[in-house]
Amino acid sequence: MFKFLSVFLMIAFASQTFALDKQGKFAIKGVGNVSCKSFNALIENENSYEKFMFVGWMNGYITAHNQHLSDNFDVVSWETSETLAGYLVAHCHKNPQLSYFQAVTQLVNELYKDRIKEFVPDKNSLQKNSVEQVYIVVVQRVQQKLTQLGYYSGKIDGLFSPECVAAITKFKQKNNLVSDKLLDQKTLFVLLKES
After folding, report:
1. In a domain, 60, yes or no
2. Which of 57, 98, 126, 165, CA to CA, is 20 to 30 A from 133?
């Protein structure tokens, strides 16, 4: 699932704004230096406040990439911090020798292909027990996938039309995906990553 670190570094530092010394090195701060093995031990401890430091570090790292990568608005198209942390835990279990920095870098590299390239004013919110805010591009991807799977035959416009809502609901029922939200993290994962 994850690409090699060097491939990402070539993509990430392709823009004009990067900071490396003459040997191509830079300082990694904070929990970025912690091993994946230690990260997993801390994350799995329910009472550990350190997990918030890891999530905060990851969000800062992603925000910095959002600021400096060209042709990019948001590297993360739909995943929440909790979902991203779950990806990192799984990746770190398989690769305990990595540092947290390396694991997050590989995650960002993997997410890059599905990034949101530009900001589109959000006209997508749907009331159903709570307001859902999903990028229009993500809803278009959902509509395309539902079309491929035979659940949807409407416009690929990124809007929650009654036909789109019905298709998502039917997909969720068929896959036993129960949630108060129409497009919760599990539904998006099953639809966009597993289907």
Report:
1. yes
2. 57
